Batch of 2 targets.
Target 1
Amino acid sequence: MISALIIVFREVIEAGLIVGIVLAATAGVPHRGRAVAMGVLAGVLGACLVAAFAGQLSNLFQGSGQEIFNAAILLLAVAMLTWHNVWMASHGREMARELKAAGHQVKTGERTLAALSIVVGVAVLREGSEVVLFLYGIAAQGGTTAGGMVTGGMLGLAAGGVVSALMYFGLLTIPAGRLFQVTSGLITLLAAGMAAQAVLFVQNGGWLEYFTMTVWDTSWLVKEDSITGRLLHTLVGYSEAPNGAQLIAYGATILMILVLMRLVPQGQKSAKRMPA
Amino acid sequence: MKKLLLALLMIATPVLADEPIVVHLKNHKFSPSVIKVKANKPAMIILYNDDASADEFDSSSLKIERVVPGHNKGNIRLRALAPGKYPFMGEFHAATAQGVVIAE
């Protein structure tokens, strides 16, 4: 039971942290609870589908289907996080000020909610498909231990929920005026980490043969599979021994988001010029 | 960035050095569990999961997470590795599914 608890908790941490950050980033936006819940629900359904068709998926693209799929959904999440940050750079401040004011604000707020809903869905889908496969495996074996392990799995899920709540309430202790800057910084690093992870999947699929040598190794300091390492991996994309292509993707993503946030015109009038 | 990746996806084809190494996972144990590869050369492991349940080939030092469903196989590409030991495990059955890649 304990082993099931640990493994499920480990998988759920990532999704939990991302949900916590998304909830904090959308503090005060109406209907965000519904958007996040829909993201989680879609993620769980998607996870079950991915688990059910894991065999077919992994045989696609000359046996690299799993890697390509993971890279694709991570890049989708990177795009959505980028769009959210750029959109918030343009509208966030007014929204924070005039939140209760007009229906127009509510309506535009829903667009970025949709983007973040997709991010939540992707996070839950990625970690969830492994949890589903793992729990299904032990449930299918049956026997007296299976019940205990499923219980452990459920406790692991609950513990992941607690992490999510801690992240959310921790962020909410930041004064409202600075919360926007903190969450947009967190989301930038989240996106950069995901882009680096996507590059890794592309490499593991055998589709990117450049800059694969390790640039530095900090495993002596923080092991990537320690709890600290995993938290850092999720939050800022920590890798104990990143390779060149990962670092390029990481840096390029941060640069891209910062430049786009600068470029985007401030104010409501820009809404019509924003790409949908 | 994404365009670059897509472009690379289209032009690059998987490159394979030498013969792939066949590894079986049965009763949640790898055989062989010690895998030797040449240092500084890419290699490929074909992992046959002979168990009914899925497992995940997981190694932070190899930077690989690859789910292999029950009664299925998975291609696991190892990048060119510096000489050394790289432990891996079947994450869903870590108590028994343990192994190591040795690059030399």
Target 2
Amino acid sequence: MKVLVAVKRVADANVKVRPKVDGSGADVANVKMAVNPFDEIAIEEAVRLKEAGVATEVVAVSCGPSACQEQLRTAMAIGADRAILVECAAELQPLAVAKLFKAIVQKENPQLVLMGKQAIDDDANQTGQMVAGLLGWGQATCASKVVIADGKATVTREIDGGLETLEVKLPALVTTDLRLNEPRYATLPNIMKAKKKPLEISKAETLDVDVTPRLITLSAAEPPKRSAGVRVADVAQLLDKLRNEAKVLA
Amino acid sequence: MTILVIAEHDHAALKAATLNVVTAAKRIDNSIHVLVAGSGCDGAAAAAANIDGVAKVLVADASQYADQGAENVAALIAAVAGDYSHVLAPATSTGKNVMPRVAVALDVAHVSEIVAIESADTFVRPTYAGNVMTTVKSIDGVKVLTVRTTAFDAASANGGAAVIDALAPGPDLGLSRVVGREITKSARPELSAAKIIVSGGRGLGSSEHFHALLDPLADKLGAALGASRAAVDAGYVPNDYQVGQTGKIVAPQIYFAIGISGAIQHLAGMKDSKVIVAINKDPEAPIFGVADYGLAGDLFQIVPELVAALG
């Protein structure tokens, strides 16, 4: 069974990103970039499926600028067999990315597509569901457990009230949540091997997809600031403040 | 313009999240319809018809909607969406699961987690864990949106007298089915709507300590219980307690952050709280940077003291 994994290049999770001074967007110039943490979890899950003999090949796919190759090499260092970059220098929004993924899926014919539930830059939480919708596939989002057997994916999902277990027919799309697995670190020997694994570059134009953004970013701003707080010395002082100053407690 | 609001419900009753979405809809225009897709969902439909400001309720009652599975529900919504200028759902697990599929069926962009509506085509949403608020304008004909419920007040659940129309059910695509559910049962208020939240982090040390220390405090305050990612990952509490960038977004009157260091990702979920109280043994913990009231010290002494002082 072939597994396709989506990989997005995003600002590293530890960076506190701020809007640009001119308010035109987020300031990510010179910021450390990384594989979206949820996508690392997806890559790890795919590699475990291969190690368990369930998947025969893991293909990592990314859409974006040429620099995404770094993240695809990381995916191959974790264990993906090969990678595809759909190269596009222009802004790509979820709808466009989903259409590009649909084109790749139709070429590659995987039985399972694994994507992160959201990217930590736009926090959109859309692309996986859109790809599934475009393909007419079943979807299981926010997975904390995935079992593949008998042409089905049995997925435990983290939902608002707790957990839900869904059985989805293959081919299916699953998006990963935090507790699905803990991704391994890429070892140095695997990083070296990854440099030699195949990385194919396609230009977005050749896939016959209109990637024009549908949402125009008018501005990007800091969130409202909270005023500075105070330290309280003890419980008595805390309760006094809550009751008499903030007046949020009876 | 007529706006379609997708109800969040459990068939018998409507969930409060629907009311916040109706308020958001009212910002755009005052012609509002609500869609209830369910199975044996008369209760939810009747409740939707009572919402102040709703003119019509469309009900699709069929077994293929019993699970609220994304594939069937999205197909139904997409089939009627062409009659509306905007389709709104709450940014709950269900809303987020379903609405992107609706958007692709209509070949339009999806704007998720809106926190403000500037005009019929311009919306504000958080990015980068809420550190960059972006204002976006949609050029699509139909706007498909999910609404962050903490950003809009609840519309009144009474006073409406909408017409209820049966909608022909859509297809049963048979792509997925629910084979199990484990829903946390609790007498406490629901986390996303609670007025007071007592939230614990890794500092609590264990599931036993988490509950031994925080349950009495939550009981005294009539509060909901929340947790940081670290506490959930460590198994102190189930996943639905998690507050943060990729968990629940909350905005209570008081948020008690106990033994929580205050990572960017946690702040994303609670920084809109009216009052933040931090209790942590590390006086340099980042949480003190957002707390209105910070008490540095041993939570194992402070929390029981607080419970006792609350009387």
